[in-house]
Amino acid sequence: MNAEQESEQKVYLSAVIPEKDEAESLPKLYEKINETLTKAGIASFEIIFINDGSRDNSQKIIEALHKKDNRVKGIELRKNFGQTAALAAGLEYAKGELIVTMDADLQNDPADIPRMIEKLDEGYDIVSGWRKDRKDKLITRRIPSMIANRLVAKASGVHLNDYGCALKIYRREALEDFELYGDMHRFLPIFASMNNGVKIAELVVNHHARQFGTSKYGLSRTIKVILDLITIQFFQRFLKYPMRVFGSVGMLFLGIGTLVGLYLSYIKIVFGESIGGRPLLLFAVMLFLTGVQLIGLGILGEILARIYFDAGKKRPYAIKKVIQ
After folding, report:
1. The dihedral of CA 73, 75, 81, 86: what is its sign?
2. Separation in Å, CA 46 to CA 73, 115, 229
3. Largest CA distance in the chain
4. 196 CB neighbour count, 10 Å cutoff
5. How many CA atoms lie within 13 A of 292 on its CB side?
6. Among 14, 261, 290, 314, who pairs with 94 as Cys (CB 3.0-4.6 Å)?
7. How crowded is the C-beta side of 320, counted as CA atoms within 13 Å?
């Protein structure tokens, strides 16, 4: 079998793992994944490490693991683009029928992957991990995460207990037809549900204390989640029809402003009263102009939505090197 034929072979499972400054964790993580999948009888798999601008010797470790086992692949990004962009790069190169995503810090347990595959085989398209017994700090990690999870579930209609758990498994078709950007990696099940109508299950998974390095997340992430929720609400409800939100509110303001203006015109014409100094006149003009502006924003939103759906796709990352 030549190299081209070998590259065209189907891969059953791809493990996509973004990492930044996790050099100490990578060899142990590789050994755990290899041991778990081999024991489960899964021989056709690949492990894709995405080096998201690491400053340690992560790249050398990834290259050494590739020489040891050519099922290990590597993507080196030119700088730190963030976890979402790194994950998008890994998903683009993944060849597996099933795709597992996880963190590189050894807090996710590869031993959970076979159980997640079994759950997937019950008829689901996505199985999301639930770190029910988290080994993180209560104040800075667990409480903000609990609040964020409830807000996301309420806003999105996709009810999961732990959106932030990186350990998830997807059927390939569940990840088609949408692009990751910004800081949206934690909302992958929501976007998949919006676009593809997938069936999602949640499974309690193991969670371990961090062995090396420090967490890249803090309390500030809660604010980002709230802002992302606003974006998700817009995408879910109005992305295809932005005029419906801007136009509806604009027509309401325009209508009220017009009615107030007609009332002022009536008392001016019929009763001859002066209306030039009335605050109600200023209020009517403000409502009318605001309504016109909102309708204009709706039209602009419609144009931008068309551009969004028609424009060519631009990657949110730049690749320096690919090892495959």
Report:
1. negative
2. 7, 18, 33
3. 96
4. 16
5. 7
6. 14
7. 13
Residue at a domain's end among 239, 270, 285: 239
Q: Go through 271-288 and write b for each residue having 16 or more CB atoms within 10 A of its CB, e for each that does not.
A: eeeeeeeeeeeeebeebb
How is the beta sheet containing 96-101 ordered, strand by strand?
200-204, 126-130, 168-171, 96-101, 11-19, 45-51, 72-77, 319-323
Q: Which residues pair with 13 in a beta bridge?
A: 45, 98
Whether 321 is in a domain gets the answer: no
In this structure, what CATH number is given to the domain that contains residue 120?
A: 3.90.550.10
Q: What is the pLDDT of residues 35-87, one digit of tens each?
A: 999 999 998 999 999 999 999 999 999 999 999 999 999 999 999 988 888 99
Residue 2 and residue 168: Cα distance in Å, rounded?
34
**Residue 16 near residue 101 (C-beta atoms within 8 A):** yes
| Residues 106/28, Cβ–Cβ less than 8 Å | yes
Please, which residues bridge with residue 295 across strands? none
* Pairwise CA distance, residues 5 & 290, whole Å: 62
Which tens digit of pLDDT belongs to each residue from 250-296?
A: 899 999 999 999 999 998 888 888 888 888 989 999 999 998 898 88
User: Does residue 126 or residue 1 have the better pLDDT?
Assistant: 126
Instruction: Supply the range of the domain harboring residue 169.
Output: 11-239
Residue 68 makes CB contacts below 8 A (sequence gap 6+) with: none
pTM of the model: 0.73
With both helix axes pointing from N to C terminus, report the angle between 143-156 and 220-238 in degrees, rounded to the nearest 10. Answer: 10
How many residues make up the chain in this entry?
A: 324
Establish how many alpha carbons lie within 13 A of residue 162's alpha carbon, considering only the half-sphere containing its beta carbon.
21
Domain count, the chain: 2
Residues 96 and 201 in one domain: yes
Residue with tokens 């995503």, as numbered in its chain:
101
Q: Which two tokens stand for residue 195?
A: 């676009």
End residue of a domain, out of 190, 214, 239:
239
Please tell me whether residues 257 and 224 are part of one structural domain.
no
